């Protein structure tokens, strides 16, 4: 036996060294000479690229009309890898990164992720191509800002804008807001809503009056989901935004820099939101499936009219405000909550929180560079518009008209009626919605001016659309909201909007100790938050709150909060700086 | 002789010793993108964090309690397959016995993910059970079966029994078939009835098999797997469902702290080692020989 043991002792470390050596043996010589991307890629060899896409909600090969546009232009298919669909947090990211290849096209968060990818050699230096990337070069300031301190051009900004950073980036509707089923609210006699908690009796009355939706299923005032839970319970992170607060991890900061505290502070807006859900649940206003359902299930309920409150226009309105419903006066509109100061994000001159990058092992990096560049071109921005503000490709959904661009008949049906409209075969066929870009992030802000038309990309700004946009729903809403024509107009004229200048602030990477503490604390906060929202009585709610604070403190919450508060203040300084420079 | 053993030695190295090299991760601040070489060496920092705060220790204590509780519940119910096999053996009608056996063995081949889907469609707030109870007017508010902190250990035990009972009985059925028929004949001549046959012949004859299986299950007391608990976990039951393997997974993969998870999983090996030494000491006392 002894000799076997001796062999084992000798062999094991040897194998270890070999395996370690295998890990470090990468790195290819790089060609620094400029390579032009300017060529006709439609004639190139067919290619399928892996797109590691952080924000994507769809996994698999891109299909439909967007696939057709990309195929015609680049003879390329997009295989979308979506960590959000795969589930399990950063599991997919870590596994692929450890394997040394994240994807051919990479869309991840700037800051920590992007930095470690550059440092680990997983992103390609695109400087040889950058010179000929004409469209993205128009945003050179943002590209340079993003790659500051790096020895090349590794990352490209998303949703960059030429608008002022103090202008809302969101279009005619802000990202957040108390959106109610306006038709039921009208039936209830437009009751006054002074503050957040006043929503509860109003919603109760609306729900009692309509216990069942058209499909025969029960109606609930609110329906929650957990898919996007991160540092905190996402759904409880929304009401604070109605008062201009935003969460920088565990710090709750007012966007004008006037107030900073932790989310677990007993007076925080976050705890207030939890209490709000708790009270709503006591009144029977919360969908009991909230604890187990995912976003898709919840979205379907909004489409069927089973939910009466939405914190986001891009949820309630895009699910339910179809042309047909609105013609009957039905739909979600923002409620006149008297003390709200809704948070709005200013346009980002330096780009948003995500970046495009080329994988270091990409097969045909020049073609991917060309694709990225195209995403900043008018045609690219029009086509790659996955949210409800996007107009889609010219010729399919819209055309140039006498007063600027206008939606075609097909476009009106496809965009305004839920997207089930069948796309003509020459555009790839399939339902319009299914064919939309799965990238889920735009190169350029949709509110920016489209140089091809002279109007914003967002069709909601087009005069041709606004002329025809009035319907019984918006007319009734406008009548009771002092004649305002859009949500933004209402909020701005009532001084209920707080625009946080778009500073493209990047949170510095945590030390490993802080990061570990943070991950444990956030698991505790999310877990307790859900329990609190569904607590059976006041005493249990308070006990859970105390337990959450105690456990979080024991796991290092206060140390992490110190970092987050400093970050929140630094972000505010960056905002003030950018507002002074560009505002 | 050495050459004959060699392939097995290589397998043991590759699958049992080589992975231990991964423990080195616990000494680094491992970031997958940078590789081990590019990650910072932090020494014993993660071990210090694990023991530095009382809350952390409490969490680990709770996790160990869950792990041991569920393992012991499993062991405590390990006699059930024995009884099930004995009763099944007494069924005279062959087709009925075969049907029961097939139906109870089948769940073993269903993955936990599918088991959870079954559980979800039956017991979620809008599942079959709640809808039926609601339609019959027995309840007005849906009962929470899945997203509750009540009786987590017991419900988890019930699911694993449902899944494993028939499969666990197979070995005992085989053992029953191997019992010497002359024992039964002589007992019958002595006037034993069916229950006495079961009590005094079948049951004692199955004990050697049972004891072997029991010892094996005690050896893997910390390895109660994580698939079952992983699919059933949610914010409401996490406190009592997190077993050691799941805790390591949640910290490492979901929480993105791979190094700390490694440090934590080393704890498992230490506890196993302690259990082994304890078992060895008991065996030494009881039988006079040691296992190792």
UniProtKB/TrEMBL annotation, chain A:
Asked whether the keyword Glycosyltransferase is assigned, the reply is no
Q: Which Gene3D superfamilies match?
A: Periplasmic binding protein-like II
Segment Disordered: which positions? 382-404
Q: Which residues cross the membrane?
A: none
Signal peptide limits: 1-21
The record's listing under InterPro entries reads: Bact_solute-bd_prot1 (IPR050490)
* SUPFAM superfamilies, alphabetized: Periplasmic binding protein-like II
Domain of life of the organism encoding this protein: Bacteria
PANTHER family for the chain: ARABINOSE-BINDING PROTEIN-RELATED, DIACETYLCHITOBIOSE BINDING PROTEIN DASA
For this entry, the protein name equals Carbohydrate ABC transporter substrate-binding protein (CUT1 family)
Origin organism is Promicromonospora soli
UniProtKB/TrEMBL annotation, chain B:
* InterPro entries, alphabetized: MetI-like, MetI-like_sf, UgpAE/MalFG_permease
**Keyword Oxidoreductase belongs to the record:** no
Q: Which CDD domains match?
A: TM_PBP2
Where it sits in the cell: the answer is: Cell membrane
Q: Which GO terms describe its biological process?
A: transmembrane transport
Recorded hits in SUPFAM superfamilies, A to Z, give: MetI-like
> Transmembrane stretches, by residue range?
68-88, 109-133, 153-179, 200-222, 263-283
What keywords tag this UniProt record?
A: Cell membrane, Membrane, Transmembrane, Transmembrane helix, Transport
How this chain sits in the membrane, per its record, is: Multi-pass membrane protein
PROSITE patterns under this entry? ABC_TM1
Q: Where does the ABC transmembrane type-1 domain start and stop, copy by copy? A: 64-279
> Which Gene Ontology cellular component terms are annotated?
plasma membrane
Q: Which family does it belong to?
A: Belongs to the binding-protein-dependent transport system permease family.
Name of the protein described by the UniProt record? Sugar ABC transporter permease
Q: Which organism is it from?
A: Promicromonospora soli
């Amino acid at each position: 036996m002894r000799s076997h043991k001796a062999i084992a002792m000798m062999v094991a470390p040897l194998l270890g060294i070999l395996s370690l050596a295998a890990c470090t043996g990468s790195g290819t010589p790089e060609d620094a000479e400029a390579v032009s991307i300017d060529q006709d890629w439609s004639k190139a060899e067919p290619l399928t690229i892996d797109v590691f896409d952080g924000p994507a909600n769809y996994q698999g090969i891109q299909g439909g009309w967007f696939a057709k546009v990309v195929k015609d232009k680049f003879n390329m298919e997009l295989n979308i890898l979506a960590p959000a669909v795969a589930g399990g947090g950063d599991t997919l990211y870590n596994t692929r990164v450890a394997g040394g290849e994240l994807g051919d096209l990479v869309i991840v968060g700037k800051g920590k992720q992007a930095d470690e990818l550059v440092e680990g050699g997983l992103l390609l230096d695109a400087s040889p191509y950058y010179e000929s990337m004409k469209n993205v070069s128009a945003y050179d300031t943002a590209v340079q800002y993003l790659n500051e301190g790096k020895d090349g051009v590794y990352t490209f900004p998303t949703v960059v804008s030429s608008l002022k950073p103090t202008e809302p980036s969101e279009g005619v509707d802000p990202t957040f807001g108390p959106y109610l089923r306006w038709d039921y609210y009208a039936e209830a006699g437009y009751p006054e809503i002074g503050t957040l908690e006043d929503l509860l009796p109003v919603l109760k009355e609306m729900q009692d009056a309509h216990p069942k939706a058209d499909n025969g299923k029960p109606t609930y005032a609110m329906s929650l989901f957990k898919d996007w839970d991160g540092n905190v319970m996402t759904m409880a992170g929304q009401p604070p935004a109605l008062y201009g607060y935003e969460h920088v991890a565990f710090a709750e900061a007012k966007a004008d820099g006037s107030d900073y505290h932790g989310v677990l502070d007993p007076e925080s807006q976050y705890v207030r939101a939890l209490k709000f859900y708790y009270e709503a649940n006591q009144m029977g206003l919360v969908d009991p499936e909230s604890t187990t359902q995912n976003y898709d299930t919840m979205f379907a309920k909004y489409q069927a009219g089973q939910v009466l409150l939405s914190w986001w226009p891009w949820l309630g309105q895009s699910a339910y405000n179809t042309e047909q419903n609105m013609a009957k006066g039905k739909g979600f509109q923002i409620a006149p909550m008297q003390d709200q100061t809704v948070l709005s994000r200013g346009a980002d001159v330096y780009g948003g929180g995500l970046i495009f990058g080329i994988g270091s092992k990409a097969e045909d990096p020049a073609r991917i560079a060309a694709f990225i560049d195209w995403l900043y071109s008018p045609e690219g921005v029009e086509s790659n518009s996955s949210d409800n503000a996007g107009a889609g490709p010219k010729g399919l959904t819209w055309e140039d008209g006498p007063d600027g661009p206008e939606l075609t008949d097909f476009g009106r049906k496809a965009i305004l009626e839920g997207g089930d409209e069948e796309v003509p075969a020459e555009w790839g066929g399939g339902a319009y919605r299914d064919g939309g870009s799965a990238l889920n992030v735009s190169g350029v802000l949709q509110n920016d001016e489209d140089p091809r038309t002279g109007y914003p990309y967002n069709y909601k700004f087009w005069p041709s659309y606004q002329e025809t946009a009035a319907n019984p729903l918006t007319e009734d809403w406008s009548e009771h909201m002092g004649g305002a024509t859009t949500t933004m107009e209402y909020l701005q004229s009532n001084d209920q909007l707080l625009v946080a200048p778009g500073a493209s602030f990047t949170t510095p990477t945590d030390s490993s100790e802080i990061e570990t503490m943070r991950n444990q604390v956030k698991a505790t906060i999310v877990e307790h938050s859900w329990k609190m929202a569904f607590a059976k009585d006041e005493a249990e709610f308070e006990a859970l709150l105390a337990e959450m604070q105690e456990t979080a403190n024991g796991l290092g919450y206060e140390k992490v909060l110190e970092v987050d508060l400093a970050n929140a203040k630094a972000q505010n300084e960056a905002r003030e700086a950018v507002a002074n420079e560009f505002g | 002789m050495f050459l004959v053993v060699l392939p097995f030695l290589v397998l043991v190295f590759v699958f049992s010793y080589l992975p231990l090299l991964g423990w080195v991760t616990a000494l680094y601040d491992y970031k997958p993108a940078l590789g081990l070489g590019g990650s910072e060496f932090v020494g014993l920092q993660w071990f210090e964090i694990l023991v530095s705060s009382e809350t952390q220790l409490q969490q680990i204590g709770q996790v160990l309690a869950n792990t041991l509780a569920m393992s012991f519940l499993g062991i405590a119910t390990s006699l059930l397959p024995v009884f099930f096999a004995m009763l099944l053996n007494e069924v005279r009608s062959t087709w009925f016995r075969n049907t029961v056996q097939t139906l109870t063995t089948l769940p073993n081949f269903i993955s936990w993910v599918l088991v959870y889907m079954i559980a979800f469609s039956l017991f979620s707030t809008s599942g079959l059970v709640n809808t039926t109870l609601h339609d019959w007017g027995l309840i007005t508010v849906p009962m929470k079966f899945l997203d509750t902190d009540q009786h987590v250990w017991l419900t988890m035990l019930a699911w694993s029994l449902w899944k494993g009972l028939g499969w666990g009985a197979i070995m005992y059925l085989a053992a029953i078939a191997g019992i010497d028929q002359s024992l039964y004949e002589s007992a019958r001549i002595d006037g034993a009835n069916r229950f006495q046959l079961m009590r005094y012949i079948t049951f004692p004859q199955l004990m050697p098999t049972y004891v072997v299986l029991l010892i094996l299950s005690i050896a893997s007391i910390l390895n109660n797997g994580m698939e079952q608990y992983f699919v059933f976990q949610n914010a409401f039951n996490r406190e009592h469902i997190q077993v050691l393997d799941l805790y390591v997974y949640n910290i490492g993969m979901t929480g993105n702290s791979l190094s700390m998870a490694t440090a934590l999983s080393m704890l498992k090996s230490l506890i196993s080692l302690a259990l082994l030494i304890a078992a060895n000491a008991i065996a030494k006392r009881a039988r006079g020989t040691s296992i190792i």
